[in-house]
Write a structure and sequence with these properties.
Number of strands of chain A: 5
Oligomer: heterodimer
Strand content of chain B: 25-35%
Order of helices and strands of chain A: EHEHEHEHEH
CATH class of the largest domain in chain B: Alpha Beta
Number of domains of chain A: 1
Radius of gyration of chain B: 28 Å
Largest sheet of chain A: 5 strands, parallel
CATH architecture of chain A: 3-Layer(aba) Sandwich
CATH topology of chain A: Rossmann fold
Structural class of chain B: alpha/beta
Structural class of chain A: alpha/beta
Number of domains of chain B: 2
Number of strands of chain B: 22
CATH class of chain A: Alpha Beta
Largest interface: A-B, 21 and 19 residues
Number of helices of chain A: 5
CATH architecture of the largest domain in chain B: 3-Layer(aba) Sandwich
Chain lengths: 119, 478
């Protein structure tokens, strides 16, 4: 199973995804903004990042930009989550691998994580 | 990935009347508190939702938080029509969350519920006994976290959740956080009890505010949306209704300049025995298959009414037989006021009724412990009937048998009817005479005189001139 970094400023969502993905056998890391996520990713080299778009300190778009500019993280797939429709989000964020509209279905998230981590 | 559209997807409750109040049902993935004192019906309410959901192909779970005996719980539901033994243990499961809560607190309980929802693909979840969860929380903050976590799980799994509680605090933590709050109340009024449901919060949709009567019958929980709220605005644009409609009595039509205006409401007021029902039968005798009628009564049983019709208004018999007229007989005091209203409006719609006779307006008062409602109730019903092109006759019994004063037992009778007909007795010597007069007719002139009339074996016969009435009144004044 894979190491998955979950990034969201909403406590309930982070906690839920942590529990669900842990149940699926993944090792789950958590961060509550983009900057914290970058620091954790640099240390732990996750197989996948699942991040919210709107967050304080550093948002999801800036996180993806920073990851793509870092040779160590450039290839790590990123799932972007937002309540904003993807057609609107796509104008504000580039370089993410997949999109999940909030409120999300955990059934769909579990399937997507399995697919992107090859597990 | 296909996004989940979050807006406006509904869970139908399977509780008659409730989805109308909620504007179409509960929001899928919402979290709702069902609050009520012990015995108010929370368990039946939530189980009925579960059974309806599994009957529609969904999966439901009922979680108890007390060390409760599930066999007894299920056994108590057996006599209700929605109960289906075959669903239990498969699409509908009953589990206890008590041990998890005791051993690991609310966090473990949430984890158990989320895992069960995922594993069994549960789409309706009931947590029975929220007070127990609140009592086990170390602080209000911990309980808020529990409710918040449940909300996240509900949303992320598309599982609609119901939390039952008998906590009646108005601003308890869960009430401020959940998507909806429904309160069930059972009140005693003297010897009588009345139950009502009130939605005091419902996110994402308009709903019918205020109290709505409910009852628990063999079929389960039934809610009657308050007619004044349901029909606050008529359900459709008005049908074109022009011209005049015969009262069924030629002389009365003359007094009314050709009959009552089409789609109007007429109230016939008078004491017991003066002939109100007979006048209503004359009115219905003008029905046809193309212009169906409805007799909505309380006091005379269909058999007695049919015998009376056969004797006094023989034209009615074939109309009853052909189905051109339906008789709906209600027992006064047996149903909530809004149940009568629903039954009446449903029959009007179902049969496309054009002539309606409601025999016994005062009986509607027995359907509520708040008689002050009856005026607004009838205003709403009358508006709906008008837009549906129904010409309506009500009978209203007044208490005075004799004398010029008329005590009307409903508030603002004038606003309830566009045409008012007064029937009264006048004493002369040792004999009672009957008199008819018009007090009001919508948008039209009418004959303002009093006329004597007789109740004969062949119905109502109004005298051709007011002469006899004048003589009676002159002699009555002495």
């Amino acid at each position: 199973m894979a190491v998955v970094l979950v990034v969201d400023d909403e406590f309930g969502i982070v906690k839920l995804l942590e529990e669900v993905l842990t149940d699926e056998g993944h090792r789950v890391l958590i961060a509550t903004n983009g900057r914290q996520a970058l620091e954790r990713a640099a240390k732990e080299k996750p197989a996948l990042v699942v991040t919210d778009f709107m967050m304080p300190v550093m948002d999801g778009a800036a996180l993806v930009r920073a990851m793509r500019a870092d040779p160590q993280l450039a290839d790590v797939p990123v799932v972007m989550m937002s309540s904003i429709p993807e057609v609107t989000l796509a104008e504000r964020a580039l370089g993410y691998t997949a999109f999940v509209r909030k409120p999300f279905s955990i059934f769909a998230v579990v399937d997507l994580v399995a697919k992107l981590t090859g597990s | 990935m296909t996004p989940i559209a979050p807006e406006q997807r509904r869970l139908l409750s399977g509780i008659p009347g409730l989805d109308t109040i909620l504007g179409g049902g509960f929001m899928l993935g919402g979290l709702y508190v069902i609050q009520g004192a012990p015995g108010a019906g929370k368990t039946i309410f939530t189980n009925q939702i579960c059974f309806h959901h599994v009957a529609s192909g969904g999966r439901a779970m009922f979680v108890t938080l007390l060390a409760e005996n599930h066999a007894r719980l299920i056994s108590n539901l057996r006599q209700l029509a929605f109960f289906d033994q075959a669903r239990i243990g498969e699409a509908l499961t009953y589990v206890s969350g008590f041990n998890e809560m005791l051993d690991g607190g609310l966090a473990e309980l949430t984890k158990l519920l989320r895992r069960e929802i995922q594993r069994r693909r549960i789409s309706v979840l009931v947590i029975d006994g929220l007070v127990t969860a609140a009592a086990s929380a170390p602080s209000d903050q911990a309980f808020r976290v529990f409710v918040h976590d449940l909300q996240e799980v509900a949303l992320a799994t598309d599982c609609t959740m119901f939390l039952t509680t008998n906590d009646s605090r108005l601003a308890s933590p869960e009430q401020t956080m959940v998507d909806g709050l429904i309160t069930l109340t059972d009140r005693a009024y003297g010897w009588r009890a009345e139950s009502d449901l009130m939605v005091s919060k419902f996110r994402g949709s308009a709903y019918l505010r205020g109290r709505h009567a409910y009852k628990i019958a063999d079929g389960g929980f039934i809610v009657y949306p308050r007619i004044e709220a349901l029909l606050a605005y008529p359900s459709r644009g008005a049908e074109l209704a022009v011209g005049r409609v015969s009262s069924g009595i030629a002389r009365l039509d003359d007094m009314l300049n050709g009959g009552v205006p089409a789609a109007s409401t007429t109230m016939i007021m008078g004491p017991s025995g003066v002939g109100k029902t007979t006048m209503g039968l004359h009115f219905l005798a003008r029905c046809s298959v193309a212009e169906p009628g409805l007799m909505f009564g309380f006091y005379e049983t269909p058999a007695r009414l049919r015998a009376k019709a056969d004797r006094m208004v023989p034209a009615l018999g074939p109309l009853f037989d052909s189905g051109a007229i339906e008789m709906l007989w209600q027992t006064p005091t047996s149903e909530p006021l809004d149940a009568y209203g629903k039954s009446l409006i449903d029959a009007v719609i179902r049969r496309k009724v054009k002539r309606l006779f409601i025999d016994g307006l005062t009986a509607f008062r027995s359907g509520t412990v708040e008689p002050s409602r009856v005026g607004n109730f009838f205003s709403a019903v009358a508006n709906e009937l008008r837009v549906r092109g129904v010409t309506t006759l009500y009978s209203l019994e007044v208490p005075n048998i004799l004398g010029p004063a008329v005590n009307v037992p409903v508030d603002d009778a004038s606003s309830l009817a566009e045409n008012l007909v007064l029937l009264r007795f006048v004493e002369r010597g040792a004999r009672l005479h009957r008199m008819i007069s018009l007090l009001k007719a919508r948008d039209s002139d009418f004959t303002p005189s009093l006329f004597e009339y007789d109740l004969t074996d062949t119905g109502v016969k109004i005298h051709d001139t007011p002469d006899s009435a004048e003589q009676l009144l002159t002699s009555a004044r002495g």
